[in-house]
């Protein structure tokens, strides 16, 4: 029987965590799925552990490839997918026992291209679980269990948590996406570009995934200055793949890229070792310049949390003659 869902598990240096991930998958109440455990050139014993599990259950497939980063795993996997749906489960995370069943039934009953649910953040030192809603606390216009089809409403989901946790994608909306290689944060590329093709989406307000928030080596604990380049590489990949002739339709996605640029400025304030003198500030300036042709589309978007001051920063950042000054002002605010 052809699997209905493929669970993609990108693997790199996770031998300490992979068993819990695979155990959670094999314990699923939904049976018609397969696991692609993709070893991205990992130097540890992760694959040996995967092979141990594959010998016990034929739904687990061990796939080996040369190291190319998270984006290369997504690229190779999505290009070859034949299942109707897929879900990404990072190898240091795990799923609720009924996660696949609930997401699958939710998507099938509502004929969704994308189903989004909540997650728990889990902290390694004490195992504390923190319920995290995918939807922003200020957003009242999107309701749980409601199907959204208008582009503006669909794209409001870009303001949700962008990580892959508890998101079930219809495979067809991810085909054709080109992912950057050798960088992190490419799950943002997947989510944004999939939304640009989504016709039907809904939010299931229950936590179905567990995210190990603060383990050493994951992206949440990454303080390298070069993460700024990773962020902007993903930013650029999205901007280049959004069809220019559909700019009016994708206004909210361009607005979300503006929000991402502001976030990158905030992160720069945290990680830069030589503020305003290193190579990364120039990349931020370039990112702002690349978004400026879409400023009219961005100006058309008003969210529930939009304020007069945020509008001032928006206009300043997206106006060529003032852009650098506003970039610096945002960064200084977080230093």
From TrEMBL:
Keywords carried by this UniProt record: Transferase
Residue ranges of domain Glycosyltransferase 2-like in the record: 6-174
InterPro entries with a match to the protein in the record: Glyco_trans_2-like, Nucleotide-diphossugar_trans
Organism: Lactobacillus equicursoris
Record bears the keyword Iron: no
Taxonomy of the source species: Bacteria, Bacillati, Bacillota, Bacilli, Lactobacillales
PANTHER family assigned to the protein according to its UniProt record, in alphabetical order: GLYCOSYLTRANSFERASE (PTHR22916), UDP-GLCNAC:BETAGAL BETA-1,3-N-ACETYLGLUCOSAMINYLTRANSFERASE-LIKE PROTEIN 1 (PTHR22916:SF3)
GO MF annotation: an example: hexosyltransferase activity
Protein's name in the database: Glycosyltransferase family 2 protein
């Amino acid at each position: 029987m052809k699997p209905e869902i493929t669970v993609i598990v990108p693997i790199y240096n996770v031998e300490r965590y992979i068993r819990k991930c695979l155990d959670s998958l094999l314990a699923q109440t939904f049976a018609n799925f397969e696991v692609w455990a993709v070893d991205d050139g990992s130097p540890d014993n992760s694959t040996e552990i995967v092979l141990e599990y594959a010998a016990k259950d034929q739904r687990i497939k061990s796939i080996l490839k040369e190291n190319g980063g998270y984006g290369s795993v997504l690229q190779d996997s999505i290009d070859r997918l034949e299942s109707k749906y897929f879900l990404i489960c990072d190898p240091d995370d795990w799923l609720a026992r009924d996660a696949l069943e609930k997401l699958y039934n939710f998507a099938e009953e509502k004929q969704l291209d994308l189903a989004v649910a909540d997650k728990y953040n889990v902290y390694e030192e004490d195992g504390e679980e923190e319920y995290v809603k995918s939807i922003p606390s200020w957003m009242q216009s999107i309701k749980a269990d409601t199907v959204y089809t208008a582009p503006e409403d669909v794209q409001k989901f870009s303001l949700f948590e962008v990580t892959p946790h508890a998101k079930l994608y219809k495979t067809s909306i991810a085909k054709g996406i080109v992912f950057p290689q050798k960088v992190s944060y490419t799950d943002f590329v997947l989510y944004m570009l999939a939304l640009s093709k989504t016709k039907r989406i809904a939010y299931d307000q229950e936590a179905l995934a567990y995210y190990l928030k603060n383990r050493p080596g994951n992206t949440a604990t990454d303080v390298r200055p070069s993460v700024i380049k990773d962020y902007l590489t993903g930013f650029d990949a999205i901007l280049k793949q959004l069809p220019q002739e559909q700019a009016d339709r994708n206004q909210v996605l361009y607005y979300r890229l503006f929000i991402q640029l502001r976030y990158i400025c905030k992160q720069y304030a945290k990680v830069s070792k030589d503020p305003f003198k290193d190579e990364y500030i120039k990349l931020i300036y370039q990112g702002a310049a690349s978004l400026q042709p879409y400023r009219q589309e961005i100006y058309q978007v008003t969210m529930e949390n939009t304020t007069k001051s945020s509008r001032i920063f928006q206009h300043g950042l997206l106006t060529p003659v003032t852009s650098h000054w506003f970039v610096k002002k945002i960064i200084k605010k977080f230093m």
